[in-house]
Amino acid sequence: MAAEPILITGASSDIGCALVRRLLSNPDAPLVLAHSFRGGERLRALQEEFGGRIQLLEADFSESSSVVAMADRIASEHGTPASVVHLPALPLTYERFTKFNWERFETDLAIQVQSIVLLLQRFLPRMAKLPRARVVFMLSSVVHGVPPKFMSSYTTVKYTQLGLMRSLAAEYGATPVRINAISPSMVETQFLKEIAEVAVQMSASSNPQGRNATPEDLLGALELLLSPASDYIHGVDIPIAAGGVC
Q1: DSSP secondary structure string for all residues of 88-155
Q2: Which of 108, 106, 135 is nearest to 122 (CA)?
Q3: Beta-bridge partners for 186
Q4: pLDDT-wise least confident of 15-24, 34-43, 70-79, 208-217
Q5: Cα 80 off chain centre by
Q6: CA nearest neighbour of 188 among 201, 177, 174, 175
């Protein structure tokens, strides 16, 4: 890992907290800049455990001004992050297309796409001058094969992120920045709190392993994409679905 800090957006999520803990279990890990929308009680608990090795950032990613203010703070206090892992999203909901909620869609688009556009516009040119830099997007298995029904809003946002990742990979391919993504199938986290338990159980039963993913199932791929071992991996979206998608 590079000495420059790693920025994890949406770090207060179950996946974010698991990643922070895994990274900081290595005594040589860089400073972790951990973003949350509000609260971040679990991040504060991690800060108590790991001390100054984790710095907390708060920003409302549905508001562009809040994202820009966070970027200004990072640049002023920490310089240029060597890695960015982008995790935030609104909780998953199921809805028929006829009930497509445009206001919610725009909010989720701002949180998942506009925010990372603003951050990378600020930091990518500088990251490209570092000896090694990384950007990792959290996508979803919905961008592989035929997506599930009743998820048009979520699927559209994830395909937008996929397009952004691939476009940036094409533009920065000749630089030291490696830009990739992972696409897990359903992960049992608080992200699922607004969908019925029966839907979670059906997803688990349809998986080849008979279960949904856990945050820990994603950490190996994330560590790989953040490490020097991924120097020749670029513009790739890795499905993590136990063989459920290819």
Answers
A1: --PPP----GGG--HHHHHHHHIIIIIHHHHHHHHHHHHHTTSSSEEEEEE--GGGSSSPPTT-HHHH
A2: 135
A3: none
A4: 34-43
A5: 18
A6: 201
Query: pTM of whole model > 0.90?
Result: yes
**For the chain, how big is the Rg over CA atoms in Å?**
17
Q: Are strands 133-138 and 177-184 parallel, antiparallel or unpaired?
A: parallel
Confidence tier at 191 by pLDDT (50, 70, 90): confident
Which residue, 121, 91, 97, 119, is CA-closest to 186? 91
Fill in the DSSP letter of residue 62. Answer: T
Whether the predicted pLDDT of 2 surpasses 50:
no
Q: Extract the runs of DSSP E, i.e. beta strands, from 10-53.
A: 32-36
Q: Which helix (H) or strand (E) holds 148?
A: none
Phi and psi at residue 12, to the nearest 5° = -80, -5
